[in-house]
Backbone:
């Protein structure tokens, strides 16, 4: 998926260039079709390029397919990767319509460069959850169990986002964590739970949801201190602004929010 | 020297050395002191050297006999055995790490009884690092030594046998000295591979500073935070491994080894 989307980029760039050089009648046609699209739907066309944080892959792929089904002329392309990699690509001039980041920090990288169209809005949230193997063999009940050196425990390394969040949560709660391993990313931590090699790992609620029946999630109140907010925005230089806005509207619609909730995200609190 | 050899050799050397040149050019030389002084760097380096050396010793103890079985014995299914021994070369190391879990993990075939009856857990320990590195690196030693055994003149062994030496004595007194350069070269390859091991280690042994965080793991995590720190750590690992190999070559391996 990622490779394909990246390969498409030069083509999108070429389209954008030709649009710039095109006659004013092209622009006029674009405007009229957007007006029709926003009222009735179904008239969007061309390519829509969405840069999305890796954790959004499943939900956004479904929403993209839905938008394509409603607009037969539209082709939605995703580039999913870590938010920091995406932000770097954006500041390097990638021609993109929509950017959805897994944290506000990387969105700030983009807005500091002045690349956003309208101001980014937070469309969903993700919180940390304790993941335990099915049956909870370590009898883990809450965050305090991460201070128990007798349990096999995994957290993310402090260098990666889930580890930074875990560190902050432990600091807030005054718990000295006794992990056996500091994993390189959240999926690696989750794998150790799925294999039953650790009694608990600190991951995101969406990861627990995605892991299926091998993993049970235990929410804990301390997670509220470190909520991960996901901002989204249409980019100023979007080659396909009408489709971009339609996608953002879809994400914020009841159907979009339901899809996010089903995947373990939750509606923004603020 | 003939151009058909010289030109591709030159291109090949440039191809192999250029990434290294890139690292050296991009290295933040002014910041190298503070980067090295960071806590954990020495610890990771020490752990890397110790675990790679232990993995090489284990590989020698087990790998040389494997090579002998593959090269000299007449047991049936030898070619299948050879293919199986080299599986870790083909297997993506991360998969190797998962496979080690399935055998030696807390829920593994052997690991489960160890954990339930003796309370021993292997994953997330330095032992797990050595096991992961041995799993990935030993095939390099086996292949080198087997090649050396096949190239060695078997008539010396026959002569020893006719003079009344049993097979164990022949192996110790004739075969081993004969293939010593091959064993040394294999051990060097094995050590180098173990030193750079990442995938199986981070999967099976996890990542914890002082216990299981070797230099390649430290480099990978530094890359998430600060690419310059990752370059410095890579150069340290490179410098130490090159120095070790050059020293060893002068001291122990003699002129006969092309290591």
Residues:
């Amino acid at each position: 998926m990622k490779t394909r989307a990246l390969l498409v980029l030069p083509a999108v760039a070429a389209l954008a260039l030709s649009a710039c050089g095109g006659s004013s009648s092209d622009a006029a046609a674009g405007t009229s079709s957007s007006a029709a699209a926003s009222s009735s739907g179904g008239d969007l066309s061309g390519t829509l390029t969405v840069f999305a944080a890796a954790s959004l892959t499943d939900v956004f792929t479904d929403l993209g397919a839905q938008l394509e089904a409603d607009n037969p002329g539209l082709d939605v392309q995703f580039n999913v990767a870590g938010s920091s990699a995406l932000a770097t690509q954006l500041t390097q001039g990638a021609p993109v319509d929509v950017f959805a980041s897994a944290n506000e920090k990387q969105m700030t990288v983009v807005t500091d460069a002045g690349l956003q169209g309208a101001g980014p809005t937070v469309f969903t949230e993700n919180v940390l959850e304790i993941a335990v193997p099915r049956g909870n063999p370590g009898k883990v009940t809450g965050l305090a169990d991460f201070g128990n050196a007798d349990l096999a425990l995994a957290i993310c390394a402090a260098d990666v986002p889930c580890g930074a969040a875990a560190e902050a949560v432990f600091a807030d709660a005054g718990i000295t964590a006794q992990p056996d391993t500091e994993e390189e990313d959240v999926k690696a931590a989750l794998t150790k739970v799925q294999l039953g090699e650790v009694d608990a790992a600190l991951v995101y609620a969406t990861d627990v949801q995605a892991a299926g029946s091998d993993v049970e999630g235990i929410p804990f109140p301390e997670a509220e201190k470190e909520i991960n907010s996901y901002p989204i925005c249409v980019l100023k230089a979007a080659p396909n602004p009408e489709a971009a806005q339609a996608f953002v509207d879809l994400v914020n619609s009841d159907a979009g929010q339901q899809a996010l909730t089903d995947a373990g995200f939750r509606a923004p609190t603020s | 020297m003939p151009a058909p050899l010289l030109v591709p050799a030159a291109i090949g050397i440039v191809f192999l050395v250029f990434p290294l040149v890139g690292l050296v050019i991009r290295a933040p030389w002014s910041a190298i002191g503070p980067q090295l002084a960071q806590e954990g760097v020495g610890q990771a380096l020490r752990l890397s050297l110790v675990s790679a050396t232990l993995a090489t010793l284990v590989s020698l103890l087990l790998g040389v006999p494997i090579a002998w079985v593959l090269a000299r014995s007449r047991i049936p299914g030898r070619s299948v055995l050879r293919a199986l021994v080299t599986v870790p070369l083909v297997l993506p190391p991360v998969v190797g790490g998962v496979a080690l879990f399935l055998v030696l993990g807390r829920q593994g075939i052997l690991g489960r009884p160890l954990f339930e009856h003796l309370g021993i857990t292997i994953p997330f320990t330095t032992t797990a690092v050595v096991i992961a590195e041995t799993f990935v690196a030993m095939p390099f030693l086996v292949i080198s030594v087997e090649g050396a055994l096949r190239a060695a003149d078997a008539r010396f062994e026959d002569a020893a046998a006719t003079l009344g030496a049993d097979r164990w004595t022949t192996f110790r007194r004739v075969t081993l000295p004969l293939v010593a350069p091959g064993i040394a070269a294999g051990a060097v390859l094995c050590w180098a591979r173990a030193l750079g091991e990442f995938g199986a280690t981070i999967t099976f042994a996890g990542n914890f500073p002082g216990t299981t965080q070797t230099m390649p793991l430290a480099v990978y995590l530094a890359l998430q935070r600060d690419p310059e720190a990752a370059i410095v750590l890579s150069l340290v690992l490179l410098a130490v491994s090159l120095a070790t190999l050059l020293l060893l070559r002068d001291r122990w391996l003699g002129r006969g080894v092309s290591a």
User: Anything to note?
Assistant: Chain B has one domain: 43-253. DSSP finds 13 helices and no strands in chain B. Residues 41-72 of chain B form the longest helix (32 residues).
